[in-house]
Design a protein that fits this description.
Layout: H1 3-8, E1 17-18, H2 29-45, H3 47-53, H4 55-69, E2 76-79, H5 82-90, E3 100-104, H6 109-122, E4 125-129, H7 139-145, E5 150-156, H8 168-178, E6 182-185, H9 197-200, E7 204-208, E8 220-224, E9 242-244, E10 250-252, H10 266-282, H11 284-303, E11 308-310, E12 321-325, H12 330-339, E13 342-343, E14 345-346, H13 353-359, E15 365-367, H14 375-392
Parallel strand pairs: 1-13, 3-4, 3-5, 5-6, 6-7
Antiparallel strand pairs: 2-8, 7-8, 9-10, 11-12, 12-15, 14-15
Helix pairs in contact: 2-3, 2-10, 4-10, 11-14
Length: 393
Amino acid sequence: MDVDALRAGTPGCRNRIHLNNAGAALMSQQTLDAVVGHLRLEARIGGYEAAAAAADRVAAVYAGLAELLGGRADEIALFDNATHAWQAAFYSVPLRPGDRILTGRNEYGSNVLAYLQAARRAGAEVVVVPNDADGQLDTSALAGLIDGRTKMIGLTHVPTAGGLVNPAADVGRIARAAGVPYLLDATQSVGQFPVDVAEIGCDFLCGTGRKFLRGPRGTGFLWVRSGVLERLEPHVVEIQSAEWDGARGFDWVPGARRFATWELNYAAVLGLGAAVDQALNLGLDEIGKRNEELGDRMRGLLEDIPAVTVHDLGRQRCAIVTATVDGLESELVVARLAESGVNVTSTEPAHQQFDTEERHPPPLVRFSPHYYNTEDEVEHAAALVGALAGKRL
């Protein structure tokens, strides 16, 4: 991987050390050109006309995402964000009183709120699977909790507040054996390391463009296994997702696009396609290897600083690193690093409710390097944290 060339093709690298890729990564010049170029075309000839002119390139976005995930293009639906993609899948699974949803302690906050709404609305039960000794979802406990009332397993692959990588493929084997639909939130994993739906064994997977894929904001996607489509009822129907039958009924369109809506931001979609192409060209194995190395380096440097505590869980960890500095609020650490030209962020305990119930973590400083970051940048950020910690000793 030619990191110098990648940085030269990333305008944001010129004036910031960007370690907030779990929030929104820096777009490459080719992705920026794809977005701006289509906006200029819309301004020149009209929005509908520009979409028609770009039809083949738009179709290639579905194909690229399918290649990225190991699925088929007809199993992909596009959205304006990952949350809407996740909701389209979740709310399509019919729930009745007494039905059970199984999920983990590290589930993302918006997903948890949807589970709680389903419990209130349908009389379903939300069952939180405990963590194992390493802090990841306990797959033995999961298998023991599945019964005839279990209607869904929902799992966040990589949580928003830590470097944990949950054992998604192990969960997939359990879900397939039990015949239970399995929804994987891969928002923080797609683009960070290889994610293969066949290997994982999920039935749904949602992701976003803006994080480790380095696409534009306002892009998301859903993959749906073809074999589960007839067991589902999408919660929204409109002219993209269904066809009028000529009388007083309708038929769902084939494939995953029955979950989507007609209107799309085609400039953003083409930017997403450019970002996906770049990831495929670089190779997810290479991307994953470098990201793991950068995450390990960041984590190790922070662990060596007195008065700094790293809070990451899990047996397998990724390029997201969370820490606290004794005596300093995390928001203040974020602000001080920003003053020095380093982008990081802090986590919200309320965005990981089930984990907060058990561990009661404070807001954490979240560092998330990506393959275009350098070792020098990681070391500089750690040195700044060390200087802040030293002032509090």
